[in-house]
Amino acid sequence: MSKHHSLTPPSRVREEEDEHDLQLNGEDLPSKAAAVHESIREEGEKELSRTVSALLWSAIAAGLSMSFSMLAKGLLHARLPDSDIGFLVESLGYTVGFLVVIMARQQLFTENTVTAVLPVMSQPRFGKFVCLLRLWGVVLIGNLVGVAVSAWAILALPIFSMQTHEAFLSLGEHILENTPMQMFSKGIVAGWMIATMVWLLPSAGSAKIWVILIVTYLVAIGGFTHIIVGSTEVMYLVFSGHASWADYLFRFGLPTLLGNLVGGTFIFALISHAQIRSDSDN
After folding, report:
1. Each residue of 113-139: pLDDT tens digit?
2. What does each C-alpha distance from 177 to 73, 171, 181, 227, 243 come to in angstroms?
């Protein structure tokens, strides 16, 4: 190992190696976009080959971590005035869960709507499609188990004041003001934006935190629906008796999940792959 690497933190070394590999790939591939595509595809191949237990534990950890978004946003909401400025400030809390999950390399379902899909699009085989469905199923279940545990613990444990609990309730109630069609439509935008963030990260280098912060902050202030973050907030309502499981499943869960899949996979990933496929054909 070189003297430079011996004095550099391991995480920074990995970032520098990823950037170096991306630059090298860019020289061999038809475009810089193809280099990004190849980097994400290789990451997706690794995810598809992971064991169920490894995926599940990582996904549960991600679900627990995503509760930080509700915690941070609710804590800020309880202490800020009900105004436009207060809303813009409290929306920064929404970004916390994403920062933790992505920087910790935990399994988040909406990331895998693009990362794990590219290997299947590049080599459309039945076996890979089955692996993709296995990955999606395990990660989604793990994420939802994690957020359910978090939502119950936040409600049941004597940690927060009544004012803060009321702020948590208001977050979930605000989501359920949307109709199922609005959930679906806003979920498409959220899925597209998270997929865009995933696409940007390989070439972001030391600016990764800013990419995550900016994109997820836009999701927050736009009120776009995200299946994992929103599940924490709506499950909190369910556990507190202010909503039913039917509300969670049919008013929020299924429409938002479908919207995230459409935005992240069937729009962003397909278009991005089509661009690279055209480059390769030429």
Report:
1. 777 877 777 777 888 889 889 999 999
2. 18, 10, 11, 16, 12
pLDDT of residue 83: 93
What is the SS3 assignment for 243?
Answer: coil
7, two tokens? 């004095």
Distant-in-sequence contacts of 208-214, Cβ < 8 A, 24+ apart? 208/15, 208/102, 208/103, 209/99, 209/103, 212/95, 212/98, 212/99, 212/102, 212/103, 213/95, 213/99
Are 107 and 43 in contact, with CB atoms under 8 Å apart? no
User: In this structure, what are the phi and psi dihedrals at residue 134, rounded to the nearest 5 degrees?
Assistant: -60, -45
CB within 8 Å of 104: residues ≥ 6 apart:
61, 65
Q: How far apart are CA 175 and CA 190, in angstroms?
A: 14
**What is the tens place of the pLDDT at every residue in 155-167?**
999 999 999 999 9
Give dist(CA 67, CA 52) in Å, integer: 23
Of all residues in the chain, the percent with pLDDT exceeding 90 is 62
